[in-house]
Amino acid sequence: MYQTKIAGLGKYVPENIVTNDDLSKKMDTNDEWITERTGIKERRHIKKGDGNSTAVMGVKAAKIALERAAISKDDIDLIVFATLSPDYYFPGCGVQVQEMLEIDTCPALDVRNQCSGFIYALSVADQFIKTGMYKNVLVIGSENHSGGLDFTTRGRSVSVIFGDGAGAAVLTRSDHNGQGILSTHLHSEGKHALELSLKGPSTNYWVPEIIADNPQGDDIPYYPYMNGQFVFKNAIQRFSEVINEGLQANGLDVDNIDMLIPHQANLRISQFVQHKFKLSDDQVYNNIQKYGNTTAASIPIALTEAWENGKIEDGDILVLAAFGSGFTWGSAIIRW
């Protein structure tokens, strides 16, 4: 059984900064309201004409990760792409990345686990490497939320939260025993699926049916729905459980955590988890204040930024944890 290590990290966010004050010009909201409830001050949005898309941003992050890993694109054995906002209904973004990177042929797999997407993608890549099937795997999380949000007062409770961006990691086989990904832990609870969802257009509720059911346009199922308080309560419970599960599986405890990087869903969730585990500010990395919730991209963006800022050193124990639509949640324990 091989060990999987992260050989390179990269991130990309659009240049277009959208502040809370900018949003207040489109909807009945203000900086104080958004900051108090989410901790977010600004986020990045794709701007029309800037050439970005979910796949394009993923490629930009991937190129940085590949350069830092000192691994050629032609040495990539598998691409795993996590997103809830693909460029097309089909094909998935994985094959777009393969084409844009000019990789001759390689398998490309798309993961649709929303906010938990990067953890799920990381786990899939880890298993392929550990079993010896593949040596180098490119894992990407990327989101274009701004293309599908309701920027009116009706949609403000959701639209103020999300931002665009991408993060990538190059995973490779390592013989260093005890260093790299120690374990991953995945869960789901489908009975709450519609508490955080986007129901249409879909094969279950296609455009003609939407128009027929909503002649006045009052009910718009192609915008995201979130039962905020219910999601919050479940998130703080599952975050705690899956972090403890990962620690216990590796004979570790909270005192061993050098850096916790939670999915950037809401700063209040991260602060609750930090308080519960009695972690200092130096032991938790948050950047939702700058980027908003970038769903599958949030953990790789935060992980990359923490590494770039010298917050992660060799031998550190990292805990990655996420919770989101599905409900799905998961964690990864890594010795850097």
UniProtKB/TrEMBL annotation:
Catalyzes the condensation reaction of fatty acid synthesis by the addition to an acyl acceptor of two carbons from malonyl-ACP. Catalyzes the first condensation reaction which initiates fatty acid synthesis and may therefore play a role in governing the total rate of fatty acid production. Possesses both acetoacetyl-ACP synthase and acetyl transacylase activities. Its substrate specificity determines the biosynthesis of branched-chain and/or straight-chain of fatty acids. NCBIfam families: fabH, PRK09352.1. It is found in: Cytoplasm. Residues 264-268 are annotated as: ACP-binding. Belongs to the thiolase-like superfamily. FabH family. It catalyses: malonyl-[ACP] + acetyl-CoA + H(+) = 3-oxobutanoyl-[ACP] + CO2 + CoA. Its main location: cytoplasm. HAMAP family: FabH. The active site is at 115, 263, 293. Signal peptide: none annotated. The keyword Transferase applies. It comes from Christiangramia antarctica. Its EC number is 2.3.1.180. Homodimer. The last Arg residue of the ACP-binding site is essential for the weak association between ACP/AcpP and FabH. This is Beta-ketoacyl-[acyl-carrier-protein] synthase III. Residues 109-190 form the Beta-ketoacyl-[acyl-carrier-protein] synthase III N-terminal domain.
